Each structure stands twice: as C-alpha cells, then as structure tokens.
Amino acid sequence: MDAATKSESSSLHSSLRYKIIAMVGNENVHAATAADAIAGVQPKLVIEPGTGSELAEVLRVANEAGLAVIPRGGGTKLGWGNPPGRADLILSTARMTEIIEHAWADLTVSVEAGCTIQRLQETLAQHGQRLALDPLWPEKATVGGVLSTNDSGALRLRFGALRDLIIGATIALPDGTLASSGGKVVKNVAGYDLPKLVTGALGTLGVITRAVFRLHPLPRNTRSFSVFSAKAEESQRFVLAVQDSKLAHTFLQSHFSDEAPPVSDILFEGTEAGLAAQESQLRSLAAPANVMESSTPTWAAREELCNFVDPNTTAVAKVSLLPGDLARAMGEVEQAAKLHHLRWRALVYATGLGWVRLEGKPAALRGALQLLRVEMESHGGSLVALHRPEKMAEFDTWGSMGDALPLMKALKQRLDPKNTLNPGRFVGGI
Amino acid sequence: MEKRILDELRGIVGGRGLISSPEELHTYECDGLTNFRVMPCAVLLPNSTEEVQEIIRICHRERIPFVARGSGTGLSGGALPVKNGIVISLARMNRILEVDFPNARVVVEPGVINLDVTARVAPQDYFYAPDPSSQSICSIGGNVAENSGGAHCLKYGFTTTHVLGLEVVLSDGSLVHFGGKTLDAPGYDLAGVFVGSEGTLGVATKIILRIVKRPECIRTLLAAFPSTNEAGAAVSDIIGAGMLPAAIEMMDNLAIQAAEAAVHANYPNCGALLLVELDGPVAEVEALMTDVNEICRSNGASEIRVAQSDAERALVWKGRKSAFAAMGRISPNYIVQDGVIPRTALPRVLSEITRLSEEAGVRVANVFHAGDGNLHPLVLYDRRIAGQEAAAEGLSARILELCIEAGGSITGEHGVGEDKKKAMSKMFAEPDLATMQRVRCAFDPLQLSNPTKVFPTPRLCGEKPGEYVAHAAESAGIAERY
Fold it and tell me: Nearest chain B Cα to A325, which residue?
C-alpha cells in the first residue's frame, strides 16, 4: 500500500476507526495491504474481533456509517463471486477459533466460525468422529468460509452437503442483531431453518459467527478402487450402474481430460467382511480387467484441479448436471475446449456436481465458459465460474437466475437493507 | 364471506371444488390436533397450479388469509383454519408427474400420499426415505410444510434432505421455483428455508424428490430390557461403537402394553423394548448385527430376536407405528408430545418424567426415536375425572420445558403450528425470532399465508407494497408494526 492510500484510509475513517479500536483493541485493527484486495478491489481496514458480539458490534457501526464489509475466514475462496462493488472493511474471523463443545456422545460439535476445518477434524478424530465433508484446503479454510461458499467434495454423495450437516448457526446481521436458529440436536423443526439460508449465501445476508454440526463416526476400514473406461459413455454407464446397484459406496468420482481416457474412483468404508463382499460386487459390475485397487485414497483430486499454476491463463468452473447427462456434458466440454484451443480437465462426482479447469488465452476461456454455461443451463444445470483471469472481460460468476431472483432480493433487503455485506458479489447483483 | 368473492372463487374451481356449507366445513375445522377448532369461510379444492394461483390472487386482493392443507394428519395444528380465512386443500393435486430412475428423481404434486411415492418406484427397487408414522395417509405437501421425519431419518435424513426443488405460489399469487433436479442451483437455498416453514411462506404446488435405492438387506433386532435405563445405555453404546443404524426405536412398558393390545405385535413383556434396524450390504449388516447383539446382551437384554422375514419385520414395525393410536386401548384420552433432547440426556430426562408423572398422578407412556433423542411421551388421562385434563396438560408442558433445559428442542417432527407457538419464546431469544420474522416478511409481506402460526407474538411487516391497510391486529393494538 502506498503512503497516499494509507493516509486516505486513516483520514476517511479516523473517528470510526477509534470507535472500532475501542471495541476490539488496537492490536486487532490493521490497515489493509495489497494482499487483502478482493478481485482487484482494495479495502481499507482489516478488523479481527474476538467474539461474536464484538463482531456484531463492529458490523453495526460499519453499517451505520454506510461502509461495505467483506467477511473473511481463511481467505482461500475469497476470489469466488463477482468483484465487490465496494469494499471498505474486512471483517476477519481469524481470532474466533474456539471449538465450543464437542458433545461426542451426542455426535455433535459447536464451533466458532474462524476455526479451520483441519483443526476441527483433528479434535473430532480424538473421539473417532468427523465432520463428513472434504472441502478444499482444509488446513486454511474455516468453518464460516466453507459454509458461506457451500463447498463440498466427494463425501457429499454419502453424507449430504453442508445443508444436511449443519444443525444450528448464529449469525450477525448488519444492524448488530446476533441471531441463533436451529439448535444442538440433530432433529429439530422449531422455527425457520436459517442455517440453510446462510449456507451458500456468500456472506451476503449475515456473518456466521458459530455453527453446530452433526457428526459421523470415522470409518473402521476403507478401500478404494479405480475403474478405467475407454470413453465418457462407458464411464457414465459405470457410474449409473453403481448408483443403481446395492453397493454402499462412500464416494464415486470420474476424471476426464484432453490427455487420458476417463477414470472413476470409488471408495468403500466399513467392516473387513463388508468391504470384501463389496469388492467382488464391484468387479462384477465393471469389466474385471478395468478395476484396480488404489493404494492411496483419491481425496486430493479436486484440490489438484484447483491448484493451478498460472492464474492468468486458467479458468475453473463448478458445474451441476444430472448424472444421466454426464457423457453428453463431458462431450460438450471437450468440444468447447477444442473450438477455443484450450487444455481441459474435469472431475465429476456421482451427485452430478463437477469441476472443470480450462487453460488458454483469456478471450478463449471466456468464449468456452459462455458456451458451456448455455449448454449446462439448457439441460437444467448450471455453471458457476469460480476462477477466471483478471484480464478476462467481465463474465458473471453465477449465470442466469430463475424466477426466484426478486424473492432473493427481497430477502437481502430485509436482512441487509443498506447492502453492507459483500455488495455485488452474489447472484443478480446482490 | 361476501357472496361476490365466493362466486369468484367458485368460478375458478367449479361448484364441486368449493365447500361452503357449514355441515361440510366441519371436516376442515381442525387437523390431527383436535383440541383447536376454527371454522373456515370456505374450502377450495384446486386441480392445478394455475387454479391455486388464481385463488391466492383473490386472497391477496381481498386480504383474505389462507391455510394450505394436505391430508390433515398434522399434530400441531399447522392446518388449523384461520378466522375469516379460507382453506386450500391440495388433495386433488395428487399426480406423480415424472419418475426418473437414472437420476433417482421423482416429481410430484403436493397431494400425493407419501407411501404412494414408494409404491410407484418399488418395482425398480427404490424407495422414498422419509417415513412418518402416518405415511399411508399423509401427503408430500404436508411433509414439506412440516419437514417430516420418521423412524429412518437417523440414517436417511428428513424431508428437507430429500426435497431438491419446489414450485411455489407466493402469497401474491406469483409462481417461483426453488432448487431443481440438479444440485446447488446458484442463489440462496430457498428450498431449504421453505421446507419446514409450516405453510407460512407460500403454497408448494410441485415438489422434486430424491429417491433412494433399496439396500441389499434389512435386519431388525428386537431386544427386551428390564428398564429404559439399560435400553438407553445400549443405544449410547451402539452409537459410540461408530454405527449408524437405519433406525433405533424405544418403547417403555406402558407403550408395549398398548401396542400389544392394539395390533398383537408379539412383543415381549418387559420394562423397555429396543428396536434396532440395520441396512446395507449383507456381509456388512451381519457383521454389525453381531456387534449390536453383543452390546444389547452386555447391557442386560433378557431376550433378543431378529426378525427373520419381511412379514415379521412388518409386524415389528406395525406395533411401533401404531403406538400413538394404540393408546386408546389403555386410556380414554391422551396427549401426544414431541420433544427432542441430546441423546445423552435420555436417562436423566426419563427419570424426571417418571417423577413428574407420579407427582401429577397422570400416567405417561414413552415412545421414542432413541437414536436421535426425539421423545414422544404420551400423557394419558381421563377427561371424565375432574382435574385430570388440566394435570395432563400441565405435565405435557413441563416435559417440553425439560427438553429445552436439556439443550434440546420443543419439536422434532410434529411442528410448532398453533400448539407450541408460545413455547417458541422459551426456546429462542427475541432477536432469533425477529430474524425469522424478517425472512417471513420477504416471502409474505401481508402475512396471508397461514398467519398466526409458529410465532408467539404477531408482528407486522413494514414497507408494505401497495396501499397501506391497517391490519386488524394492529388496529386492535395486539400487534406492532415491524
């Protein structure tokens, strides 16, 4: 940050800055640096409240002053979403990392939003349990960030998405309200399910300060296999056959790319006896020669796809399609890439959620994304562009919204009427 | 209701789709919770989404509150009519519109009966997982409103897990779509908020469901324990051993007696009965069943049986699922309570219920979804004995407080409805409830869709679209503008 910006940020907000310092302490308010920029938009201050109520207070004051607030956890997915229209303060949960209660005998955990997924999992593992979710970059990603971006991976097939794992949440609203909903029991239908509303809302409705999750036991044993196919149609047949079988697999994912024929990975968890029986069933479903036991689990596949080398020539999109459309969709990706001279690879789960990476010139990337979005949407799916080069011409992250957009805007208006939180980052300009 | 409005409504649904004679309206004056009764002005039976929209547009124009109703089996008064309002029965919209096996999706209208979805997909070996005890008569639309659970939600999740998309008529008559056949549609998870909102956010007219492949095998074990304490300890050990059974149900002695009297399920006569169901691949289930058997024995189970055939399994479940109705065999009147506690609080809460029951001189039979801590205490009384009804109601309310004190919930699956709206302010703080109300105002600013339910204090939404009209509650000074 240059000196001019620095003096501007302090002069613009000096009285406000003192107010905030009084709330959270001098050592927890920092001038934002270039590293804090969000999609090229430079905020002024980074604030690290120590508790949910401190966070709510800071948010209230910022909201009253008409400032734009960007909530931040580990910052691993801060690039997801459209660039913010404005950004003044980063509200960081870096100090809110407490695991409040691991009620292991009840299979639940209550945790502050800033706790990293890895630390949470390590604590849960002490009692043989886990949050049955495999989000990206768990060593840095936080509970709040993963919830806000609704990140999920291979385990979703068996255990559901975050919406199925979260049972309670506390959120701070821009007016300073600190509201809890849900609870700490797995079964509960009292009141509206606000934990689901804030999951995947990209921090545009409120800031999640704590969450309660239902947990699952760690598996007794696991075995994973890779199944090789000659082409996408064959791999679709295999995926649908497994889904229509009596196998109790934990995950099933397929890799496609411009350099190798498709491979599907399948993971089983259970007792030794159960695993042996499932292996033989699996071998009867696929041509036995094509099935290989994998020595290492294939968890890291999505992270590998997202850990690209050159951000200026890479685009990553999350696609959603029907499992029965897998081969057609992969054909479309291949064609679009060919047409625009791009390298490509994709990872698609049996749930129909997938990740596509394209590499090439920004204009070509844009062309391919546009084409693929039309394709996905015309078959009832979607394409969300999570990463695109800064030099690429404007391209909306989310795609076309249905007839519920006015209602979504009404919700935003009720909870964040001054458009304080993450302005312009979400769907339809929210 | 003014004749011109009735005529207009009749014009939409036809003469046979409108009920307005007092004799016929009696059928609709309550749902499964019969101690609240309100006569609606009219009941409408639309056949299509368009008809629902037209009805609701009139309600919006005339400021007439409406209550959607499925099969009317709800136990919290969610479908209780609202004074000066109409009831929209979705019973005629009962078509299964699409079955898509490769993608495991089914699209239904709201009046489709829960069990009919399974019946339709069973030939291909699929089932629809949420299974409330009333599944042979309750509707999917009602399940969506209440986020219904059932015995198997321990493993398979609740209605909300299985609803992927919704077509909804909002209270101004507009049609919106939430979610879809594919996952993670961009935008807020409105389907997640709508499911379980008890009809207060609009009327679902189409529902996209997920269906599940039937597991290779299902084994149901029945274990007899001296008391609920030993049975409860066995539940903890099963969960502690890292197993996730499809269902764990518990019944105490009084509940067993009633079920025996009603359906002759051939249950052993004991202090507490545990029913554990495991499903999955044969080898896996058999290995785990050995462990469950061992855990039950080491916790003092005197008799353990494993249902050997589908018929035996069905009988075991029939006893459990008819437990509520069976109470009629041992008591002239009873209150069905629905509360949730953390599983580990089970022994403490149960002994407290026993103590309170003795103190009040009112019997309590206990039926639970023990795996997830969902209690269904049945408070038995005889209305003819002076003071018993009041004692039973007092005890029932006290049990809910016990659940809240234990860190649980006032309802696990029956909903808040009319019945428990006062208890909401014991479970939630004012800012929590106010935030929920703000969500409601975004969906239904005029509060026409099942108003007066769920929330303890009526609140009005500010910034009403269109012309300002004072709400009756506001004029009467019983509600504040919000």
Answer: B103
- Domains of chain B and any CATH numbers: 3-89 (3.30.43.10), 96-213 (3.30.465.10), 215-330 (3.30.70.2190), 331-419 (3.30.70.2740), 430-481 (no CATH)
Asked whether A347 and A302 are in contact (CB, 8 A), the reply is: yes
Per-residue model confidence (pLDDT) at position B315: 86
Which residues of A are less than 8 Å from B288 in CB distance? 271
Q: Rounded to a whole number, what is the distance in Å from the CA of A308 to chain B's nearest CA?
A: 24
For residue B215, the chain A residues in CB contact (below 8 A) are 246, 248
Q: Do A205 and B188 touch (CB under 8 A)?
A: yes
C-alpha closest to that of A143 among A120, A173, A176, A170: A120
Q: In chain B, which residues have their Cβ closer than 8 Å to the Cβ of A159?
A: none
State pLDDT tens for residues A270-296. 999 999 999 999 999 988 778 999 876
CB–CB contact B436 A105 (8 Å) = no
Instruction: Report which of B240, B365, B3, B461 is spatially closest to residue A411, judged by C-alpha positions.
Output: B461
Instruction: Kindly tell me if the per-residue pLDDT of B469 is higher than 90.
Output: no
Report the chain A residue with the minimal C-alpha distance to residue B240. Answer: A105
Using pLDDT thresholds of 50, 70 and 90, give the confidence band for residue B414. Answer: very high
Residue A376 contacts residue A329 (beta carbons within 8 Å): yes
**10 Å Cβ neighbour count for A139?**
10
Spatial distance between the Cα atoms of B360 and B262, rounded to a whole number of angstroms: 27
Cβ-defined contact of B435 to A173 (cutoff 8 Å): yes
* Identical topology for domains A221-252+263-299 and A302-387: yes
Architecture of the domain made up of A302-387: 2-Layer Sandwich (3.30)
Determine the average pLDDT of the residues in B421-426.
95
Chain A residues near residue B147 by CB distance under 8 angstroms: 189, 193
Fold of A221-252+263-299: Alpha-Beta Plaits (3.30.70)
What is the C-alpha to C-alpha distance for residues B287 and A113, in angstroms, rounded to an integer?
Answer: 39
Q: Which of A110, A186, A351, A353 to mutate to test the interface with B (most CBs of B within 10 A)?
A: A186
Domain boundaries, chain A: 3-92, 99-217, 221-252+263-299, 302-387
CB contact under 8 A, B439 and A197: yes
| A134 close to A111: Cβ distance less than 8 angstroms | no
Q: CATH classification of A3-92 is 3.50.50.60, yes or no?
A: no
The Cα of A278 is separated from the nearest Cα of chain B by a number of Å equal to 8
Task: Tell the CATH topology of A99-217.
Answer: 3.30.465
Retrieve residue B186's tokens. Answer: 């961009």
pTM (two decimals): 0.95
- Residues with Cβ within 8 Å of residue B30, at least 6 apart in sequence: B36, B37, B38, B72, B77, B80
Q: Do A183 and B341 touch (CB under 8 A)?
A: no
Query: 3-state DSSP helix/strand/coil percent for chain A, to nearest 5?
Result: 35, 25, 40
Cα distance between residue B397 and residue B421, in whole Å: 12
How would residue A300 be classed by pLDDT, with cut points 50, 70 and 90? confident
Shortest distance, CA A335 to any CA of chain B (angstroms): 22
End-to-end CA separation in angstroms for chain B: 29
User: What's the complex ipTM?
Assistant: 0.96
- Tell me which residue in A105, A407, A426 faces B343 most closely, judged by beta carbons: A105
- Which residues are registered as beta bridge partners of A95? none
| Beta strands per DSSP E along A166-241 | 166-172, 178-182, 207-214, 216-217, 221-228
Angstroms from A206 CA to nearest CA on chain B: 11
- pLDDT one-digit tens code per residue, B29-66: 999 998 899 999 999 999 999 999 999 999 999 999 99
Spell out which residues of chain A touch residue B284, defining contact as CB-CB under 8 Å.
248, 270-271, 273-274, 277-278
